[in-house]
Amino acid sequence: MVFSQFYAYTARMISTIRKPTSIDVGKLLFVGAIWGGAFIFIALALDDFGPLSIAGWRVSLGAAVMVVIAISIGQRFPRGRRDWRNICIVGCLNSAIPFFLISWGQQFISSAETAVLMAMGTFFTLIVSHFTSDDERINLPRALGVSVGFIGVLVLVFWDISTAGMGSLVGELAVMAAGCSYATSSIVSRRLTHLPMISTSAATLSSASLYMIPLAFLLEDPLPAEVSETSLFALAYLGVVATALAMTLRFFIIRANGAVFMSMVGYLVPLFGVLWSALYFADAINLQTLLALALILIGIALTRKGS
Fold first, then answer.
1. Backbone dihedral region of 74: left (phi > 0), alpha (psi from -120 to 50 degrees) or beta?
2. How far apart are CA 93 and CA 116, in angstroms?
3. Can you tell me the distance from the alpha carbon of 72 to that of 95, in angstroms, rounded to the nearest whole number?
4. N or C: which end of the chain has fewer CB within 10 A?
5. Whole-angstrom Cα distance, residue 146 to residue 130?
6. What's the CA gap between 108 and 290, in Å, rounded?
């Protein structure tokens, strides 16, 4: 009842897209801080859980919370066979694959590097959109932005190889593949824009949990005998806060201020990821990470200028 009343009130207040206020900017910063902090909690969860188990519990907890929210606000779940086919594809590309790849990759690289490399998804989205849509073509500023962004990624990757050898490369490639998976899912998600956002998000997470949990039991031990409270708290954060809560906030931000304003979170996630890592892990930040971050943010700014 409380959720439905809050949703109805919010819907009346933001029935049309409006210019962002300081409160809206604060909401965007909050979402960026939540997603930027997820990489630290993945690192903490890896102490007791495997990457497949982390991904499985994350989508399952997120799905449970999102289903409760969707039912509470009265959003109907999709029914069409074609819609559910696309929902399963998005659930795989937007949740199952990237959640697993990020967790697996962080076994080899730091949370700060992970946050920076995830920005690859922004550039990959632009490249894919160029060939799959008529209104997102690559122009000169966008091409320049993609080039600068890729240089930033290469700085981070090749510097790591020169100092630590090839060991970290597999982790970096996994994280970059996760970013590309997010980007690909955004293309398929366009086929779901006619559906309610929160119930559809609940459906995509639920579809991913249907095979991620069985895979975790088959290939790992998702219920280890000894688990620290820190790891359990990290899993709860990833599923409830970084997935369910952040997705819900994303819905309200897009509804109030539009998808373009929400896309600015692409700047904030790597920034907060590096900031939280610097605060939590004393030795997580080095020169190449900061240089790569600067180049990637400049690249994102140039692509935004070309929009």
1. left
2. 20
3. 23
4. N
5. 12
6. 19
Furthest C-alpha separation in the chain: 58
Domain boundaries, the chain: 22-305
Q: pLDDT tens, 246-284?
A: 988 888 887 787 766 777 777 788 888 888 887 787 655
> And the tokens for 61?
């907890």
pTM reported for the whole predicted model? 0.83
For 61-85, the DSSP string reads: HHHHHHHHHHHHTTPPPP--HHHHH
Token digits for 154?
Answer: 């290469």
- 283-307 in b/e form (b: 16+ CB < 10 A) is ebbeebbebbbebbbbbbebbbebe
Strand ranges (DSSP E) for the chain?
Answer: none
CA-based nearest residue to 214, from 108, 76, 60: 60
pLDDT tens-place string over residues 31-60: 889 998 999 999 999 999 999 999 999 999
21-39: string of b/e by CB count within 10 Å (b at 16+)?
eeebeebbeebbbbbbbbb
pLDDT bracket for residue 6 (50, 70, 90): very low
**Which one-letter amino acid corresponds to residue 94?**
N
Report helix angle 2-13 to 51-72, nearest 10.
80
DSSP-derived 3-state class of residue 1: coil
Q: Give which of 179, 203, 239 is closest to 75, Cα–Cα.
A: 203
- Please check whether residue 31 is in contact with residue 251, taking contact to mean a CB–CB distance below 8 angstroms: no
What pLDDT sits at residue 161? 65
How far is C-alpha 245 from the geometric centre of its chain's CA atoms?
A: 12
| CA torsion, ordered 157, 162, 163, 168, to nearest 10 deg | 40
What is the token pair recorded at 187? 């293309």
